[in-house]
Amino acid sequence: MLSRFFLAVVFMMGVCCKSQTPAFRVEIVQPTMEHEAASIWRTIDAFTFLEEKAYKIHLPSHPLIDSLIMKSKKGTFGNKDFSSIRTLLETEVFDQGNYQKALHTVERHIASINNLVQAIASKKSQWDWDFKIFDTYRIVLTLYGTGGSYDPDEGIITLMTDKAGGFKKYTNPVNTIIHEIVHIGMELSIVQKYSLSHEFKEKLVDTFVHIFFNEKLPDYKIQNMGGIDIDTYINNKEHIGSLNAILSEFVKR
Fold this sequence. Notes:
Layout: H1 4-15, E1 26-29, H2 33-45, H3 47-52, H4 63-74, H5 82-93, H6 100-108, H7 110-121, E2 137-142, E3 148-151, E4 156-160, H8 174-192, H9 198-213, H10 237-241, H11 243-250
Parallel strand pairs: 1-2, 2-4
Antiparallel strand pairs: 3-4
Helix pairs in contact: 2-5, 7-8, 8-9
């Protein structure tokens, strides 16, 4: 993976361009070429994993990208390839106008996102596990990747859009954003503690969102992670509060 220092530098190069919309918990960062180059780099670096998990992968259609995907599959792709991705974006691909519709849509939902995060914050002290909450989550839009991703150390959420301002799976981007916020919240105290598989953590995050926000996000979809059956053990808000105790027993099965 790209070093944390390198990714931090890439991110900070774009922070000055963030939207000035006031927010309590959320900032929308104006996408830059550096952000998009990093998004493409991460996607290509994880290409084999994403392909194995049957994710639909969005990348620029270009011979350079095809060659970098082949390098990734052979295990020869690395940090040295970032500059070629950056050059491709600068000379042929990147257009700031491609993000404006999506930016405006997310901006309209900031208050809703804040309210959902605050709902978690008001309850987490009663739980037997620590849900990590950032003072500020930064949302970065991208045209590339698989849908949404998260950085649990920095509170950064990468949200995929398209040139028409649409979002994967949902008309309302809040569904994906809160999904990634819950990923961040349980990454250290639950996912890493119990070494949960990719499928298990996705099922757990979906279960959390469905239980906690069923009325506020009625169109939220639970992914089909075959063979991961936790519904009998976790199916109400009381179970969310006892998640640590429940999982400590569940993983012994």
